[in-house]
Amino acid sequence: MIKNDKILATNAETATNLAVEAMLDEVVTWPKPGLVDPISNAGHTDMNVYTFINSSVTMMPYFKACWNLGNQFQESDLTELFRQLRPIGVTAEKTMFAATNGVNTHKGIVFILGIMVTALGYANQKKLNTVSDLINIEKQMTTGLVKNDLEKASTGLLTAGQKQFQQLGLTGIRGETEAGFPLVIEYGLPIYESAQLPQNERNLIALLAIIAHNYDSNLIKRAHNSDLVTQVQTDAQQIVTNYQETGRLDKDRLEKLCDKCATHNLSLGGSADLLILTIFLEKLIK
């Protein structure tokens, strides 16, 4: 359970700053299994921490546009708000790729935080001020997303998420979004709020709580092995359980998990995106 549900009043500038801060907070957190941090590229040969910093900064105009779109939207059907957001997101992706020389650093965040910042702008207009309100808005915005993007997808050129839906029945980030981000609301945010740890370790324990329950499309794509996916989830849960029992982050176990991800060239980019959302929401709650 989230301890405090009430969020701060925002404007476009505040929302943008908090979103970019959350992105930067995530990338400087270390050591992260299967993810770029200031010390390791974690098997990502085409990117490093500076790539992510450059990409994050390019998102500022996008988040301002998202907040303003939500704040000015007057129609009753919030799926129309999402429809209007999507071309703005496509433009933001192009800006990101230009800044990173074609490397996908934050495509998932363009999607996730784009929706949430738009929902935040709409909430401001309607004088709604809780995390529950935000989740309710974004769920209305994305109603039918799995059906429209996954169930109706042809067998032609498919994204990794569409392939995993057709082959494994996994709904990925679209399902997570349409369901109201349960991995964040039920796992990431509660432990993040309550953790009596230094900031870096708070970020890590929230990330691990998400990893333990997330069928991360990035992980599945690289693992090619359901047993390996389960191992990563189990290892993450053991660290979380140990923290809940001792109040300490087991750095030895974390290092072993990082080594396992490096050995198998695993990526946990989907979980990193949900950590960014967790951090963003906590900043709003403050």
Automatic annotation (TrEMBL):
GO terms for molecular function: ATP binding; triphosphoribosyl-dephospho-CoA synthase activity. InterPro entries: CitG (IPR002736), TriPribosyl-deP-CoA_syn_CitG (IPR017551). Gene3D superfamilies: Triphosphoribosyl-dephospho-CoA protein (1.10.4200.10). It holds the Pfam family CitG. GO terms for biological process: prosthetic group biosynthetic process. It comes from the Bacteria. Its EC number is 2.4.2.52. It catalyses: 3'-dephospho-CoA + ATP = 2'-(5''-triphospho-alpha-D-ribosyl)-3'-dephospho-CoA + adenine. Keywords: ATP-binding, Nucleotide-binding, Transferase. Belongs to the CitG/MdcB family. This is Probable 2-(5''-triphosphoribosyl)-3'-dephosphocoenzyme-A synthase. The lineage of its organism: Bacteria, Bacillati, Bacillota, Bacilli, Lactobacillales.
